[in-house]
Write a structure and sequence with these properties.
Elements lengths: L1 E9 L1 H5 L4 H15 L1 E8 L6 E7 L2 H13 L3 E8 L2 H9 L3
Antiparallel strand pairs: 1-3, 1-4, 2-3
Helix pairs in contact: 2-3
């Protein structure tokens, strides 16, 4: 499975209904399961981003469908990052010339 990190910021709509954020997170987990995305962690954070998620999915297309579906709900803007562990990074470095 491929790992991803999602950085999310509340929209105006999302902050107006912030008291629902934990319920929305549960709904996002369900949505992920329906699309084949495992939401591993959800953290509410201080700073530029309001929420950080860690995901696992089969490929980028599944995660893109997930991200578009979450964004269409209107509560957050997201930025998705592909994440590599040390073993994967070592393999990448091994391909360098």
């Amino acid at each position: 499975m491929t790992r991803y990190i999602v950085l999310a910021s509340f929209t105006d709509q999302g902050i107006r209904t912030v008291k629902e954020t934990t319920k929305r997170a549960a709904a996002v987990r369900e949505l992920g399961a329906q699309l084949g995305v495992q939401v591993k962690d959800v953290f509410w954070t201080l700073g530029k981003y309001d929420v950080v998620l860690t995901l696992e999915a089969q490929d980028d297309t599944v995660v893109t469908a997930f991200g578009l579906s979450v964004g269409a709900l209107g509560n957050v803007h997201t930025q998705t990052l592909r994440a590599f562990d040390a073993t994967e990074m070592q393999a990448i470095l091994g391909k360098m010339r």
